[in-house]
Amino acid sequence: MASRARTTIPPLDHPLPVVTLDDLYGSEAQPEAAPAHDPARIVGFAVLAAAVLWSMILLLHSSTLAGILVAVPGMYGLISMWRHSWTGLHFIRATLYLRFAFPRHARRAREGTAGRKVPHIHVVVTSYNIAASHFRAVYAALFRNLADYGVPSVVIASITRDRDRVLLEQVLEGCGVPANIEVVAQFQKGDGKRGALAHALRSVARRHPPPGAVTLLLDGDVVIEDGALAKCLPFFVADPALGALTTNNDAVTDGDMVTRSWYSLRYSQRHVLMSSLSLSERLLVLTGRFSIYRSDEVIRPDFIDIIESDGFSDWLYGPLRFLTGDDKSAWFALLKRRAKMLYIPDVKAIGFEALPQDCNFVTGSTRLLHRWYGNMLRSNVRALRLGPITCGPFTWLCILDQRLSMWTALVGPTLALMLSLTVSPVFLVYYLAWVLVSRLIMSGLQGLAWGRFEPLWPVLLAYDQIWGALLKTFLQFRLNRQSWTRQGIRHGGGTAAIKNFVASGLHVGSLVVLCLAVAWMARPGS
User: Fold this and answer.
1) Cα(242)–Cα(168) distance, rounded to whole angstroms?
2) Position with higher pLDDT, 259 vs 481
3) What's the pTM?
4) Distance CA 432, CA 426 (A)
């Protein structure tokens, strides 16, 4: 290894060429979008157009419209109005942030700090059984960014096997062994990402980062675009109160059209929500894929402790240690300190996404939603207790809405089923038409903000909202159920039978109460 860079990795005589994201997928390709001429995509748009046209004719037919206005109770109308108004509010706030607030912040940060840089960068990258081609692409992009930015940088690579050490050396050699980069390889204990992160952050703390330094937390399957650091780090230089930021996300998706569309929908939703929240300088999560922190925040002992062994006490299951959700833990640690958080929409981190192996779409997406929603529910319980002053009023209301929306999202389909069984099956047809048209409008707003639209989005949005709400209500009473899809680790399966019985009873009882409330709303004259 050349003396210009320090590393704990043994040198190699014949490094392999570096493989970048462009090499893998083509420099002009959109990360997860299907080609515009894809026959399946064309057919999808045609089917969507026909379905929407039929639904609009059905809904606008005079007798049908009159029947709906008579049958839909006022209380449901208020709930529906509240839910759709909340969606519209997020879109309006996101538009204000993307069109006005962020461009102003970006100009002040990037032009106002010209010639000034953060003094030092630490990067923690956690990898677990990452494909070699993806591993090289991730580190090649990272090393290019660090070399271009030009300040002293330490990359702590949390790896799992000797192959990763070899690949690190190859990529570093392929990038010309930048003089400002030191690479430190750390083997994980194998007890999960939390332990690996805590071990790496303690290494950062022992190095005593100088004031103004920053630390990047990066997943080992995420590629940051060229120039990402040059665009992000000026925000820390311009605003000493900024505690952390996260960026836009996109994906290279391995799967069929349904899987690709589902991931693109989720990223478009994230883009709008993050933009809306960033208007209040708070977020609902600091995404573990790629986020940047002020080093003073991440080397605090309480921050490292919450990353390593976060948890809370549930009234039914007792003390629960969080298996996944380190990004939620990091967010909560900064939220308690009222640290400012920002979303940078013009910088993308691109991940390699796929459903869990040997799963169809419903099974695979359910496993992922199980993990994501479980982390959300376990985290927002304690976040609500911080109150609107600490969280910020709008952020606190969003956290509250996360707990309410799982129930309000079920009111519509429950009412439609009741009316179909007690009045006429045609009401289910009306409801499906309304779902298609309303979700098309929501998806269209997402597409306007995101810059892309897929024909399956309206259907997938309804799937996420209804099936996701059912899954959330299930997890609400079973907060002990945790899983990590990549490592195949699961917790909560050995809970005492009496606790499982109580959880099931509460869950069923809550659904019965929901049905009774909807039946009361649907009574004549309501």
Assistant:
1) 32
2) 259
3) 0.89
4) 10
